[in-house]
Amino acid sequence: MGKLTDAVEKDLKYLRQYYPDLKRCGLTTMPTAVGMVADPQILNYPKEIRAKYSILLEIVYPDDFPHSPIKVYDMLKKINWLRLPKERRHIFNDGSLCTHHQDELIHIKSENRSLMIVSPLTPNDGGRGFFSCFL
Q: What is the pLDDT of residues 51-86, one digit of tens each?
């Protein structure tokens, strides 16, 4: 395996501890993972509740991962951006979601960065973040 593949596999193994539905796939030319992401505390809840409080993400790993952070995309466009205050609408021109300011990520160890990027997309934030727009 190459250096990038090893780094991606290590990162996915770590992320799957929290989000077991993530699967590695080859939908793009970049290393990619796709899966439903929800607060790990609701994994044993009924299917209808898990569906309401989860989001189908595509995670794209850059060529220089882990030196650059992953990009995450809302594949089903579940986030209703109009329900979020304007100052909380953090989406890049390419459609990827911004969950942290770049300066915040610089201070996070590279092996923890992906979890920091994905975590705000789960409803464990008390409805203050992205998941407040689903309710």
A: 888 888 898 988 888 888 888 898 888 887 787 777
* Domains of the chain from N-terminus onward: 3-125 (3.10.110)
- Cα 107-108-109 angle, rounded to 5 deg: 120
Q: Using alpha carbons, list the distances in angstroms from residue 97 to 5, 81, 119.
A: 23, 11, 12
Residue 89: what are its φ and ψ, rounded to 5°?
A: -85, 90
Give the sheet arrangement for strand 71-74, strand by strand: 23-25, 32-38, 54-60, 71-74
Which run of H or of E encompasses 102?
A: helix 102-106
pTM: 0.76
Angle (CA) 130 131 134, round 5°:
115
Q: Return the H-helix or E-strand segment holding 67.
A: none
